[in-house]
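About this split. The held-out portion is used to measure sequence recovery: a designer receives only the structure tokens and must propose an amino acid at every position. Recovery is the fraction of positions where the proposal matches the reference. Here is one held-out target exactly as it appears in the evaluation file.
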């Protein structure tokens, strides 16, 4: 069959469907659309004129659809503008303050806690059940006497030498001194807890509670820092010094703990003894009136369950008792290693503040 004959057959089959008349009877009209059907376009003379008629019909349909889409978009724009106007009006209400929107995609809702006074809890860095009353009756004069050469040279005199530049830089500015001290004191507990955590994972063994005990120590020291940040506002060069000291001390202590945990814990024990001495001097200046005994920061009152009229002197007393407890924990941990045992073999003194 030739191409011309095949085209004729195809035209006879499809012609009535494409170019046939469209019924305008009510039965064939769409119940949704109320517009009358378009008039049929017949082949006027066939050939190119017929093809032109088909294109005219298609173009008219496209133009109508475009007009409908434009009208719809215009309506949407109007509704969007109305929604924006309503949002602007809502924003004006409440003195122009807008609440922060937290995504609820994960289904996590921040918990609202109440203090014992029936007031909403204002701290997110610690919870009401994490507060405590420190034991201030602890012996502050207790000292681990270095008996072996290792303790004397590697630990005791190392700490004594580290104190010299601190005394020169801060002298008797004990607020700034305490701030610097706490940025260093919060490092050992985190390093020790992290290394014990990794050891527990590698060896599939328990830690005897020492991971938690050391992390509690680090968190407690960090709360000391958050408190003294409210008392002594650090200057830019003091912040720069913190960056340098923390960078050096973290890496040095990390390597020291990897090499000898008993040495690392003994160093921290002596560091805490020096901290007790520094806070005792701080307390003397407060009592002598050389430093103003300002009201205690709100964070300290809630964290240590202090009375509402507590002062800076009360804060120094409870912080010093915390340092005494950390002294005992680290000397105890070092003694465990000196006896040839591992920390996991002896239960950790949890919540020993």
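Reference sequence for scoring:
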């Amino acid at each position: 069959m030739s191409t011309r004959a095949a085209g004729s057959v195809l035209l006879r089959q499809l012609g009535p469907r494409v170019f046939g008349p469209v019924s305008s009877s009510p039965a064939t009209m769409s119940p949704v659309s109320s517009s009358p059907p378009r008039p049929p376009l017949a082949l006027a003379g066939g050939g190119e004129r017929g093809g032109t008629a088909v294109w005219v019909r298609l173009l008219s349909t496209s133009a109508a659809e475009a007009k409908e889409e434009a009208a719809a978009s215009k309506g949407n724009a109007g509704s969007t503008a109305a929604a924006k106007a309503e949002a602007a009006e809502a924003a004006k209400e409440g003195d122009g303050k807008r609440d922060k929107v937290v995504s609820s995609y994960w289904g996590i809702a921040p918990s609202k806690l109440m203090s014992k006074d029936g007031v909403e809890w204002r701290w997110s860095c610690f919870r009401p059940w994490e507060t405590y009353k420190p034991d201030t009756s602890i012996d502050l004069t207790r000292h681990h006497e270095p008996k072996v050469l290792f303790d004397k040279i590697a630990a005791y005199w190392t700490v004594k030498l580290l104190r010299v530049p601190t005394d020169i830089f801060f002298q008797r500015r004990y607020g700034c001194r305490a701030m610097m001290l706490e940025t260093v004191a919060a490092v050992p507990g985190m390093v020790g807890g992290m290394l014990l955590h990794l050891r527990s994972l590698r060896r599939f063994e328990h830690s005897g509670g020492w991971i938690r005990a050391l992390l509690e120590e680090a968190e407690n020291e960090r709360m000391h820092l958050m408190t003294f940040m409210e008392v002594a506002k650090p200057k830019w060069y003091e912040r720069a010094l913190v960056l340098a000291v923390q960078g050096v001390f973290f890496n040095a202590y990390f390597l020291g703990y990897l090499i000898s945990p008993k040495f690392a814990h003994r160093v921290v024990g002596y560091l805490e003894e020096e901290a007790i001495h520094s806070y005792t001097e701080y307390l003397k200046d407060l009592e002598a009136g050389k430093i103003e005994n300002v009201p205690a920061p709100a964070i300290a009152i809630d964290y240590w369950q202090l009375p509402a009229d507590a002062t800076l002197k009360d804060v120094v007393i409870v912080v010093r008792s915390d340092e005494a407890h950390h002294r005992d924990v680290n000397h105890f941990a070092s003694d465990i290693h000196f006896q040839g045992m591992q920390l996991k073999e002896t239960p950790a003194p949890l919540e020993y503040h």
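Annotator remark: The CA atoms of residues 259 and 273 lie 23 Å apart.
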